[in-house]
Amino acid sequence: MKKPLRYILLGITLLALQQVRSQENNPYRDSVVQLYGVVMTADSLQGIPSCSVIVEGKGRGTVTSYDGVFSIAVLKGDKITFSSVGFKDRSILIPHNLEGNQYSVIQLLVTDTAYLPATILKPRPSREQFERDFVNVKISDDLYETARKNTDEATRRILIRSMPADGREAVNYQLRQQATKAYYSGQVPPMNILNPAAWADFIQAWKRGDFKSKN
């Protein structure tokens, strides 16, 4: 039992020595750098809050605090880009031969001027000016004829029948159906074929042309 245990301890020792050697030979063992500093405006030296500090090509970064202070872990050789709305982007490169594992920077950003197209502000017309322009506007005969046809009573009735009902009309129709069903509950509903008022409405609709073909 002692010989297998001795082999197990020897294997664990060799494995530990191999891990120590791999760490010593790892080129990234001492490449981690704590980057910290402050981002300020170049003209007034005011801290820029919420400025993006991005490690290019790594998909990670951080933002500055209310005073423009930031801190992030990077690698030697990384490219860091500082960007903020209203300022030009700036980039720095972490030195490969940096001694130690800390790197501080004071980054100044220059204001980026954006020129917008000219905007002309006009006063709101008065009621008299609006009425004058509305009355004097020229309407072509084609548009006037189209408006006249669309306002015809028979055309409007055809449009009402052909267009689908909206939500309000559908709900009102359903409520009327439920009210009628509850009103005539337990009895036979009246037959409109014997209702003189219904016949009068039918005759009036026939005279108006409500039953004409839509085409």
TrEMBL record:
By its UniProt entry, which InterPro entries does this protein fall under? Answer: CarboxyPept-like_regulatory
The entry's protein name is: Carboxypeptidase-like regulatory domain-containing protein
Origin species, per record, is Sediminibacterium roseum
